[in-house]
Every structure is written in C-alpha cells, then in structure tokens.
Amino acid sequence: MRVANREAIEIGEKELLDAVIAELDWDAIEKKLKEKHNISLQEDVEFKNGDLVVHGSKIAYELNFDVKITLSVLFDRFGECIELSAAGSKEEEIEEKEEAPDENFVPPENINYEKNNEMASELSDMIDEINEE
Predict the structure, then answer these.
(1) With the CA atoms of 6, 9, 15 and 17 taken in that order, what torsion angle do they form, in degrees rounded to the nearest 10?
(2) Where are the domains of the chain?
(3) 72, 85 Cβ separation under 8 angstroms
(4) What are the average pLDDT values for consecutive 10-residue runs of the chain, which has 133 residues?
(5) Residue 108, SS3?
(6) Cβ–Cβ under 8 Å, residues 21 and 62
(7) Which of 14, 82, 111, 122 is a plausible cystine mate for 74, CB 3.0–4.6 Å?
C-alpha cells in the first residue's frame, strides 16, 4: 500500500539537494581539499549525484562531484618517474616556480641545441668505440 506519491518524493529530494548544493561554501571545501590532498579545484566542477545517507548514527548528505585537476608528471630521460603531483591550476604552479626559482632550470628557449647535438654525437662515438672492443 503506497502512502505517498513517489514522484513527489523524488522531486522534493532533488529540490532539497539543489538547495544544499547552492549553499555550499566552496572556499571551505577547497581549503579542506588543499589541506588533506594538496589539490585545488578548478572552475570545472560538475555535480554527479547525491543522496541522504546514514553516517554512524547521523543523517548526512553525500554529494559526488566530478572535478578537473591539473596532473603534473615529472620523469627523467630514462622514463623513471621523479615526481607525480596534482595541482590546482597552472597559474598556481607558475606562481610557485616564480617564488622559488630552480637554479638549474634552463628555459627551453635558452637551450643550446647545437651543443646538445655535439654532446650526443660524442656519446654516440664513445658507444661505438666500446662496442667495437
């Protein structure tokens, strides 16, 4: 025996979740995310689904979002991973680099390709000599 209209309940639940989502403090959420996972949110946050749940002995809201993050993968010329990190945005990464510049960093436009080619050629010759022995 049905005592309430299912569609009315679903509509009411959706409206409730929409109202809760509209009032979320995204600054606080981003701060907590940054503290716990060192990740910042970007503009592209999309609500996926949500529900009322029981957590412990309390009623809680579980809201799931798809978020976009910037993933930075740093590896050497042998393919070995040096660092894997998630950052909030390219702007933050650039600001961090500007604040603490790496003394060994050579911007791509300042690389001496001719010298690199000479060194590669010398290494190749050395390898050939080793292989001939």
Answers:
(1) -110
(2) 6-68, 71-132
(3) yes
(4) 92 93 91 83 85 91 87 82 67 49 60 70 73 64
(5) helix
(6) no
(7) 82
Residue 97, classed as helix, strand or coil, is: helix
Provide the 3-class DSSP secondary structure of residue 76.
Answer: coil
Residue 52's nearest CA partner among 40, 41, 60 is 60
pLDDT at 18: 92
What are the CA-CA distances from residue 85 to residues 39, 56, 62, 70 (Å)?
A: 9, 33, 27, 8
Q: Which helix (H) or strand (E) holds 114?
A: helix 113-132
Q: Which two tokens stand for residue 110?
A: 């300042």
Q: Is-contact 39 88, C-beta < 8 A?
A: yes
If you search the block for the tokens 């010759």, which residue do you land on?
125
